[in-house]
From TrEMBL:
Protein name: Uncharacterized protein
Naturally occurring in which organism (per UniProt): Alexandrium monilatum
């Protein structure tokens, strides 16, 4: 008896990747077919889960030499999480990850 199901189409090396933070629904089809679920009515909500992280593609504009406020949105963010503002040509890992 197995205590888990693998949803990888039978390919053990196939990764499962969540590409954005937020609340996701996990749906289950109890009557699959070779092309997916045999009928839309067989899909059932199995669970909801929260993926922590920032909301992608946020954009801000600021004036130079003016004190500004930055609101950063996401799911499950903690007060000790950090942001690093870098030049658009830079990399987050430049200078060993330390701010310039």
């Amino acid at each position: 008896v197995q205590d888990r199901l693998l949803f990888n189409g039978g390919v053990a090396s196939r990764p499962f990747r969540v590409r954005r933070a937020g609340v996701l629904a996990v749906c289950y089809c109890h009557l699959p077919s070779s092309s997916g679920c045999s009928d839309q009515q067989h899909w059932k909500l199995a669970a909801r889960l929260t993926v922590h992280g920032p909301i992608a593609n946020q954009v801000w504009e600021f004036s130079v030499n003016v004190v500004s406020r930055l609101e950063y949105l996401g799911w499950g963010l903690e007060s000790d999480n950090m942001l690093r503002l870098i030049d658009r040509r830079g990399s987050c890992t430049d200078n060993s990850g330390n701010p310039d």
